[in-house]
Design brief:
The protein is mainly beta. It contains one helix and eight strands. It has one domain: Lipoxygenase-1 (Sandwich). The termini are far apart.
């Protein structure tokens, strides 16, 4: 005996599949090292925006309870989840506050695939000086600009 599946049953099955898919398609680790200079650390949050061919994902990092984030000569790591961004293009790092930060380097690692990207910067990110408030780290380049 053959069983036929109606178009309505197929649509219901497809809808169940689509709406049961995970909300986030990728997990990343964002790690950044603060320079070993006087006043290099910051008490401000730092914005990390991961940009890909299918969209962007903005993350406000640095307000971790019981932790001194972005302190002098310290590496801070954060796990973030994003929608599927497709092939990565850029990582944008922004200081929205007035307490500047000296970033030595930043690394982005896809926790699902193991692929990682590493950029050096070795300079200040600041809204109240001659330094930029935002730097861009392009996939395929070794330094942020």
């Amino acid at each position: 005996m053959k069983t036929r599946v109606s178009a309505k049953q197929m649509m219901i099955a497809l809808s169940c599949f689509l709406f049961s898919a995970p909300a986030f398609a990728a997990r990343y680790e964002v790690a950044a090292k603060t320079c070993d200079l006087q006043s290099a650390g910051t008490d401000s949050e730092v914005l990390f925006e991961i940009m890909g061919e299918r969209g962007n994902s903005l993350h406000h990092l640095g307000y971790t309870p019981n932790r001194n984030d972005f302190a002098r000569d310290q590496v801070d790591s954060y796990e973030v989840s994003t929608p599927d961004l497709g092939a990565l293009r850029w990582l944008r790092v922004t200081m929205p506050g007035t307490d500047g930060w000296c970033m030595q380097w930043v690394r982005l690692r896809n926790l699902d695939t193991g692929r990682s990207w590493f950029w050096r910067y070795n300079s200040w990110i600041d809204t109240n000086s001659e330094y930029p408030a935002t730097v861009l780290c392009k996939v395929g380049e070794a330094k942020c600009r």
